[in-house]
Task: structure prediction
Amino acid sequence: QVQLVESGGGLVEQGGSLRLSCLASGCAFSSYAMRWYRQAPGKERELVAYIYPYARDINYGAFVKGRFIISRDDAKNTVYLQMNNLLPEDAGTYYCQRPNGDVWGRGTQVTVSS
Result:
């Protein structure tokens, strides 16, 4: 059974950084594209970043504006989201998703203080 587990969220000051991780188990990780989404109360769920197998292509949501980096380490079955220069509007629950099969993790909470 495929499972995704996010970690790395927490409280950070505006302008600070966090590195989120998503550990996958029960699948051939390297074969799949992976996504990061986020959602805050009162806001729609939005795509943060998208990475294809072997990082052949990478896409970001328009709001990222160069502040975030998605990467993957297939040997560790892990996809990362490095977030820099965080803003209060970046707060929310961050989820990783495998589009194939629409598999979701439980999410990790990010709080940004000003």
About this structure: The mean pLDDT is 96. The first strand starts at residue 3 and ends at 7. The CA atoms of residues 89 and 112 lie 8 Å apart. The chain is about 0% helix and 50% strand.
